[in-house]
Amino acid sequence: MTSRNAAATRQRILEHARTQFAQHGFAAVAVKGVADAAGVSPNLITRYFGGKDGLFLAATKVEIPVTDSFDGAPSALGERLAASIVQRWFGAPGEDPLLVLQRASGERPEAAEALAAFLDANSLEPLHHYLRDNGLADAEAYRRAAAIDAFVLGVSTRRRVLRSELGTPTDLQAWLATTIQRLADG
């Protein structure tokens, strides 16, 4: 097997794992089921990922350019963040590693830790710095960033994990934009 084929096989396994973990949660997913869906032997999952735990951690690696939403005036922060959030939520929900982490965080301590670390590093802290750099005192900037972070996580959990309908993407984006802006403005 060439390294190119190995890389493609590894990627195919990860894509199927993301989908299955997002749809069914950690406990319900079997290595054999992922292997069958990817058209490979379960031994390859052990070889590439060390087993189900390693596969889960690899499948839930999250990379989101959240800081792109911080380019611009504070008065339009809610609009930029809401547009980014709604685009992610209505994109490819079955394969979103952030959704996988959200759903698994109640059953896997490492998923909860990974989700918290991701949110701290990619949401809370950059938002805190953005608000502070735009004129708020450090403690107030942190308080507002934490409120926005908690609000978005709560709405995300309600919509994506509990699967509640919260309106059309357009309506949801408008509501998120308004609420995030109010939280940012204090």
TrEMBL record:
Entry's Gene Ontology molecular function annotations: DNA-binding transcription factor activity; transcription cis-regulatory region binding
Entry annotated with the keyword S-adenosyl-L-methionine: no
Positions of the DNA-binding region: 30-49
Keywords: DNA-binding, Transcription, Transcription regulation
InterPro entries for the chain: Homeodomain-like_sf, HTH-type_TetR-like_transc_reg, HTH_TetR, Tet_transcr_reg_TetR-rel_C_sf, TetR_C_16
HTH tetR-type domain span: 7-67
Entries under Pfam families matching the protein: TetR_C_16, TetR_N
Name this polypeptide is given: TetR family transcriptional regulator
Organism per entry: Umezawaea tangerina
